[in-house]
Amino acid sequence: MHRLVCCPSLASRGVRLLAFLLAWLLARPAGAEEAGPATPAVQLVAVLEAAREARDATAWAGHLPRVGELWATASEPDRRLLAAQLGHAFKAREEPVQQAALGAALATRDGEAMWKAGLKSLLPEARDEQPRPLAMKALAAVGSLAPEGAIGTLQGLLEKAKDPQVAAGAFEALGGYERSKQREAVLEGLIKVLRLQMPSGGGGQGGKNPSGPSPRWKALEAKALPALNALTGQRVGDLAAWMQLYDENKKRPAVLFQQPLD
User: Fold this and answer.
1) Is 30's pLDDT higher than 60?
2) Which of 47, 127, 160, 220 lies 20 to 30 angstroms, CA to CA, from 198?
3) Angle at CA 123, nearest 5°, toward 117 and 126?
4) Residue 35 carries which DSSP code?
């Protein structure tokens, strides 16, 4: 893959964009005109492809927000085209393009489609010692979009990430799965991780870690209570009370969730 040129001259940029658009129009299958004018989504795909092929990162990033704007009214075939464009942008080398793609993904509010399109590629790796800020933003975005397919990835980061903030970010993201059919298993996993990391004897919370508060525990503790309450709809005031509540209901965890699933 060629490296994108972020700042070509305006004249050169315009010529390349127009050339690609002309080539795209000429390459349309015979009879395409009979189906009527291209939809806004198809028109946008042509513009995005032109910017990508012209190696114009500025134009590429500038047009990506339109994906989120068009998503709600786009047909399923058009959504597939738009999702494919986001997939290209997720994997771009230029961070502004990735940032624009992440914003567009959030705007779609369609977690399943975004996960399938390749949102995972923006997430931090478990081995990362200092992840990019964009990777942490992507982690938060996954929590907002809550795709079912991401649960295993988030659990892996929670349990294995080297960076305590990545583990805490995964914990927080899993708190966004209040509408998931897997939410009871998610809750069980969160409690298990807390028990393993919690210092023993800490406030009567039943921790299994004999050492003092570690950086990992401190990062998790800061996110744990809000995430557990968000996942379940509870309004428990402190973590010790939450652990006790879970122990009292662990044989019937469904009662811990305030909102029934549809």
Assistant:
1) no
2) 127
3) 135
4) G
- Nearby residues of 34 by Cβ (< 8 Å), 6 or more positions away: none
In this predicted structure, the answer to whether residue 159 has a pLDDT above a threshold of 70 is: yes
Instruction: Determine the Cα–Cα distance for residues 134 and 118; give it in Å rounded to an integer.
Output: 15
For residue 30, what are the CA distances in angstroms to 4, 64, 81?
33, 29, 20
Q: Integer distance in angstroms from the first to the last C-alpha of the chain?
A: 46
The confidence score (pLDDT) of residue 20 equals 55
pLDDT value, residue 262: 79
pLDDT in the model for residue 200: 77
Residue 85 near residue 67 (C-beta atoms within 8 A): yes
The DSSP secondary structure of 70-122, one letter per residue, reads: HHTT--HHHHHHHHHHHHHHHT-S-HHHHHHHHHHHHHHT-HHHHHHHTGGGG
Secondary structure percentages of the chain, helix, strand, coil, to 5: 70, 0, 30
206: Cα within 13 Å, side-chain hemisphere: 14
Which pTM does this prediction carry? 0.85
- Determine the Cα–Cα distance for residues 167 and 220; give it in Å rounded to an integer: 7
Cα distances from 63 to residues 43, 57, 121, 246, 255, in angstroms, run 11, 10, 21, 47, 46
